[in-house]
Amino acid sequence: MRRSRTSSRQQHIQTGPNLSETACKKPLITPGSPGEDGVNRAGTLKKPRSTCHTLTMMSEPAVVERPALEDVAEEEDVFAAEGSSCCQVVEKRVGCPQEEGEKQLTYPPPVPLAFRKQVSYRKAIAKSSLHQLPCEPSTSSLNRTDPEANIRSTADWTESAVYGDHIWFETNVSGDYCYVGEQHCIARALQKSVSRKKCAACKIVAHTICIEQLEKINFRCKPSFRESSSRNLREPIIVRHHWVHRRRQEGKCKQCGKGFQQKFTFHSKEIVAISCSWCKQAYHNKMSCFMLQQIEEPCPIGAHAALVVPPTWIIRVRRHQSSMKSSKKKKRTSFKRKSSKKGAEEGRLWKPFIIRPIPSPLMKPLLVFVNPKSGGNQGTKILQSLMWNLNPRQVFDLSQAGPKEGLELYRKVHNLRILACGGDGTVGWILSCLDELALNPQPPVAVLPLGTGNDLARTLNWGGGYTDEPLSKILSHVEDGTVVQLDRWSLRVEPNHTAGAEPDEQQNDKLPLDVFNNYFSLGFDAHVTLEFHESREANPEKFNSRFRNKMFYAGTAFSDFLMGSSKDLSKHIKVVCDGTDLTSKVQDLKLQCLVFLNIPRYCAGTTPWGNPSEHHDFEPQRHDDGYIEVIGFTMTSLATLQVGGHGERLSQCREVTLTTTKPLPVQVDGEPCRLAPSVIYISLRNQANMIQKTKRRTSIPHLNDQQHVPDRLRIRVSRISMADYEALHYDKDKLRQASIPVGLIVVPGDSDLETCREHIQRLQEDFCSLSPFKYLELQEEAAKPKTFSCQRLSPKWCFLDSTTADRFYRIDRAQEHLNYVSEISQEEIFILDPELVVMAAVGTSPSTMPDLVNPTSSPINSRQESSQKTAEIQQGKEMERLIECVKNKDVKKLQELHTKGTDLTSLDESGCSLLHHAVHTGCKEMVRFILDNAPSDLLDVTDHLNGETVLHQAAALCHRTICHYLVEAGASLMKTDMQGDTPKDKAEKAHDAELAAYLGNRQHYQMIQREDQETTV
């Protein structure tokens, strides 16, 4: 029937009839139908520029002919059956504007409708990834000549860059899910385990040997640039979605609002979702949720649209095009400055890529520099995550090249912001490059601290190091951060000819850096740093552990203290601050370390200047006042730094002249050397723009949508052990179940976490005054039992952010004053206690969960205990009625009882839930009703006799459909009963091989789900 309708009218499109909704609602997209080339922005067809597209029209009022769900699920296997001829046709049709002299492409033979149905989603999505921009690259740019060119881990900025090229990183994900599909998977054909790689930009996973097979299915990464063309000036610049098939997807469908769940099909690896790599929108892979017209819709880019550099801004310029244009126009001498150096000048001026920004007051384009060597393996992970959240071409790897190239490329971008991911040295490197390029205005720099130390990052409220805060949240802070100024100080060194020469010692005439942002010091601390630096250069293999490095530092400091190598420092220096000679004061105090400090933080977070508010001689320290603080240390004051002490305040000045009479160890922002006798001049160089992290609410209300902040918040506090956090931090529901209540606090609605910490500490003091063996329990519906003692919180506890969609995140204690309690809590706060010891539950009712209320304000009196017993008796009667309904398979009666308020979460004396009884009867309607109306906690409730969950029982009874219902609802497939059997083992013992295979497949999904092979939305 469809074949006859299709063949009734086929025509080649020469001119453009209007395709408005009244004339032709939805054209059928065939494997060769036009993407952006065939349909213009107004929704009308236009004459193709280089290819002849075929659009099949219906004789009746046009209706979309989209593939059925089962056809879409099989698209992985279609191309292998069709052969290489189809792929060749596709490659021809995906082409770009015709080059001069190129022959017109011929029409391909008609393609059967069944084939079109099966591949319409595949081809439409494949074409969408190539037709998102106003101009697509020529076909020559899509042809690879070097087999290694497609295995790249950074963006290619050369002329030979491939449009839609993936950026591959090693991955340790397991499973049989290579994106090319089973028909094209070489590893599957070889039946052996091979390495896999994951694309950082679109998050697909493929075997290393299968990467070239992506060409066969015509799948490319989200485009990060566009080609130059004169026609682009007359066309609107938009970015289209980059749709990717996903076999696994978290979150909910944007269309229907339901979660993404696997269909119940044995040995199936279905595509469950279609999501966009730019905006992260995701839809179910079915016609009711994902419409074909969405493929050509403009993409909103997502939550960080203000930070993302659109691919339409980044333009590749062909070398031969420039020469052709210059030859046709009037004489231009810009490319021929000197005839004798024609080639050199042209090579220097021509760049393969240029940035053509479109200024907008709402845009804050972000340029990111990542130092992968900082913070162990953190840098590499952050690099990949930023490429996923942003355009890969706005993220630069500093291990490949310095920041200068990226800064030069983006120097004309209006309202540019920079994110430096690394240590303070990385920030200083970027600031020095900004000085060299003399950008005006200078873009502000934010810091994502990696590694240890990070005093500048602490000063700007970015914390002392990256833990596991969501990068999306960090990007929001970068966008909303306040721009502040940072003083930068010049160091000019001249040799001190009056001092006696000491040729035997290794000494330098110059400092490692001629500018500092944090501090310049000499004496004890510089000597320890220099010894560490020299030892590491001599034996780098001995310094590959952070713990060993710290131990070496401690040992060197202790030996230097015993030897007193810096005790005579004051005898060999002369200090003049703003014309005032402080040498006599330095000698009187017998200082062994002298620090010229620009920021309040020093030595991994200490505050050596302290708070001089009670002294009228000095002002509080600022990083933007044009003054530098001069501080001296004795061995005693150095020792007290870590416990809140401060050094000897000597001066706040604008200029310093420091004279040394012997070689001394010095360090500039952590870079040490042994400096020969010199005269050092310190003066203000300039001020750099920096981004300071500020308090930010998760949702900022509009002017016409003001949200009321409550005067007081009543919040429940629960703590989590480190073992539970490490095992379950990706499973929010189970982590909530594993938490132990601490109590209730009442705080003002606009409180930050520092205020909450004070309330929690007071709550602990009140609670721990009780007997340590006293247990308090209250009823809470639909929760599991736990018993706990009043174990005191350890000093190292920290807050957890539980509001993100995917997992819990730790909050740095140094940033608690920047987070409102409303940002991380709705009604409950979770805290991580690394020293928490959880006690086993003893003698608790299976239907209760303890909720600790401050015993001083809410005691459990005898009246409450009496009412509790009455409620338990009433609950037992209700349970009997419910079990009777289930055994009789009376669904209507069960619905009536539920409507009257009967609790479906009750357990009988054997620990079996109502769901256990429903599974035992095998009534599918009953199971479906309970799953739809009861909390998901029932899925993993175990009986007292065998320790079996409902899925164990369903598998043992070979109830396939019920097993599917339970797995779809989220039942655990890794939970074992008292015999150590999983649900899969139960199915095997029941001799149901297909059910066991299905459960094994789903168990494998759960085991690797947290690695998320393809994407998380």
Distinct helical segment count: 30
CATH class identity of the largest domain: Mainly Beta
Give a quick account of the main beta sheet: strands, pairing sense, barrel closure: 6 strands, antiparallel
Specify the structural class.
alpha+beta
Question: Which strand order do you get reading across the main beta sheet?
Answer: 17-16-27-24-19-20
Q: Which value, in Å, is the CA radius of gyration?
A: 34 Å
Identify the CATH architecture of the largest domain. Answer: Sandwich
Share of helical residues: 25-40%
**Tally of distinct domains:** 5
CATH topology of the largest domain: Tumour Suppressor Smad4
Outline, from the CA principal axes? globular
Question: How far is the N terminus from the C terminus?
Answer: 40 Å
Stretches where pLDDT is under 50 for at least 5 consecutive residues are 1-120, 127-147, 321-347, 697-709, 770-789, 839-865, 1010-1017
Strand content: 15-25%
DSSP, total strands: 32
Averaged pLDDT: 73
Structure characterization notes:
By secondary structure, the protein is an alpha+beta fold. It folds into five domains: 2-139, no CATH class; 314-330 and 342-481, Rossmann fold (3-Layer(aba) Sandwich); 489-685, Sandwich (Tumour Suppressor Smad4), CATH 2.60.200; 712-860, no CATH class; 879-1008, Alpha Horseshoe (Serine Threonine Protein Phosphatase 5, Tetratricopeptide repeat), CATH 1.25.40.20. Helix content is 29%, strand content 16%. The protein is built from 30 helices and 32 strands. It has a six-stranded antiparallel β-sheet. Strands 23-22-21-18-25-26 form a six-stranded antiparallel β-sheet. Strands 29-28-32-30-31 form a five-stranded mixed β-sheet, with helices on both faces. Helix 23 packs parallel to helix 25 (914-921) and helix 27 runs parallel beside helix 29 (983-989). Mean pLDDT is 73; it is low at 1-120, 127-147, 321-347, 697-709, 770-789, 839-865 and 1010-1017.
